[in-house]
Design brief:
The structure is a homodimer. By secondary structure, chain A is of the alpha+beta class. The first copy, chain A, folds into 2 domains: 2-76, Glutaredoxin (3-Layer(aba) Sandwich), CATH 3.40.30; 87-210, Up-down Bundle (Glutathione S-transferase Yfyf (Class Pi), Chain A, domain 2). Chain A contains 7 helices and 4 strands. The first copy, chain A, has helices at residues 10-22, 41-46, 66-76, 87-113, 137-157, 170-184, 194-204; strands spanning 2-5, 27-30, 54-56, 62-64. A 4-stranded mixed sheet of chain A has the order 2-1-3-4, covered by helices on one side. In chain A, β1 (2-5), α1 and β2 (27-30) form a beta-alpha-beta unit. In chain A, α1 (10-22) packs parallel to α3, α1 runs antiparallel to α6 (170-184) and α4 (87-113) packs parallel to α6. The longest helix of chain A has 27 residues, at 87-113. The interface between A and B is large, with 39 and 39 residues.
């Protein structure tokens, strides 16, 4: 298997953290997003969306979408469980993971992409070479949605030390990647959110956070 | 178990189609979105996002997010398989389902919500009572992304009769719900996309499409 990666990008980081928690090592091929390699013909032949990460199976099948990649490895090597151990846990984790993704990752992306000159014609991820202009109003909407994201975090942490209860899961991975992505646009965990700030320190200290 | 539903809304329809394909019947509680019941205090106590569907388990746990609900039932009753039968199929289905969701459902939602007067202060789903104003530029961006969605459909159907190959899956469910949602904004399958038009007729004729 091969893993098409980009070290600076938030979505590949979710997969790298996940793989590190599982102790899975893969052959990695670094794609230089900042230099535009993801929009070059070679990489567009691998993923027409120009997005990372992509997993290439030994039979040549290519899987994009970070959640598809993580779920693949969750089934291949179930321990430690990152998506829950029973039906109820799995449902809660899937639901919360998606909130972290929509309200955290996607909002951070919209704030970042719509105010950053380098992305001024690439408002939406996965547009490839399409010309989708920046929409400044999405900066405000993204900031409002990130308020809600931070509210979710603090609420979940009232229930337990991790975002889905007693142990570390995919919810924590997506959330910390979103928190760090929001910081690119100078948006940070509100000072009053004491539980979230403490959670952030603990998760950041895990070896997988450096993966 | 109880299923909080809304007959006119596209996301609950995805769950209803899925349940119908599995032959699972649940107690359903209809919430009147058009009358604003989803943003009333009673329903916000059930789901603070004001979104449908919500599954309530017998122990009182509430699961929102349609994909969390569908995956719950996929594990509870694996046949007929809607998310794939082996690791490779599952990865392809998860990946394609997400494209149908992002490029199809979400784009349809953005086009609809940002040009419809009733939603002019509710640009983003799940904002509950938050005041997130409409962003007209999202109508154009959504239309461009729907072009890409229709391109995916036609490409996938070059490989087999259904969107993930030889049998009907969650990818087909999300896709047909997105096609019908786009039609609310008078956006339709391009005439040249002959495979997609034929697929649409076949999927629409399944009994689950009326669920």
């Amino acid at each position: 298997m091969k893993f098409y990666d980009c070290h600076v990008a938030p979505n590949p980081r979710r997969a790298r953290m996940f793989l590190a928690e599982k102790g899975i090592e893969l052959e990695k091929i670094e794609i230089d997003i900042l230099g535009g390699e993801n929009l070059g013909d070679d990489f567009l032949a691998i993923n027409p969306r120009g997005l990372l990460p992509v997993l290439e199976l030994d039979d040549g099948t290519r899987i994009d979408e970070v959640m598809a990649i993580c779920r693949y490895f969750e089934e291949l090597q179930p321990e430690p469980a990152m998506f829950g151990r029973d039906l109820r846990e799995k449902a809660i984790i899937t639901s919360r993971q998606r909130k972290m993704e929509f309200d955290g990752m996607i909002s951070s992306s919209e704030v970042f992409r719509n105010q950053n000159e380098q992305f001024c014609k690439r408002s939406i991820p996965g547009g490839g070479k399409d010309d989708i202009p920046a929409i400044p109003a999405l900066i405000d909407r993204g900031q409002q949605t990130l308020d809600r994201f931070f509210w979710w975090l603090e609420s979940y942490l009232e229930e337990g030390p991790y975002l889905a209860g007693e142990y570390f899961t995919m919810v924590d991975i997506t959330a910390i990647c979103a928190v760090d992505f929001a910081a690119w646009s100078d948006i940070h965990i509100p000072e009053a959110n004491i539980r979230t700030k403490s959670w952030y320190e603990i998760i950041s200290a895990r070896p997988s956070a450096e993966a």
